Amino acid sequence: MSNTTFTMIKPDATAKGHTGAILDQIIKAGFTIKAMKWTKLTKEQAGAFYEVHKERPFYGELVDFMSSGQIVAAILEKEDAVAAFRTLIGATNPAEAAEGTIRKQFAASIGENAVHGSDSDENAAIEGNFFFSKLERF
Ligand code: UDP
Record-annotated residues binding ATP (predicted)? Predict the structure, then answer.
């Protein structure tokens, strides 16, 4: 079990001014930010990031959305980070997310759902390496 996960605050949440509140909740939940950047993906970059979802019906919409505005990408550390972070953010669909979770509080829909959280240790490593070089993390 790895102690690292990867997150993005998605364009819906940055546009609505929720970045500070979301980072505050992540830190208060005990995660350490090991690397972080505020950036904007091109369509090509968003397409490459979500390549695993290429065959899913929502892929085109997801790529358009994720390249539509600014995002915050971060590598986070905590014991059992992947599972702990997915508990903190809640279900993909905010209508099904538990009370108090980040998606319940800040997400508008199953697509525009405020935050990303890696779903496995393997993907956390791949996703962190997509955004950050060794020099950009500690
Ligand atoms: N998504 C979507 N429509 C769907 C399911 C997912 O637009 O019906 C988007 C949503 O932004 C989600 C992302 O695709 O966060 C990745 O989907 P996944 O099933 O991996 O959910 P997650 O791991 O993010 O909870």
Answer: 10, 58, 86, 92, 103, 113
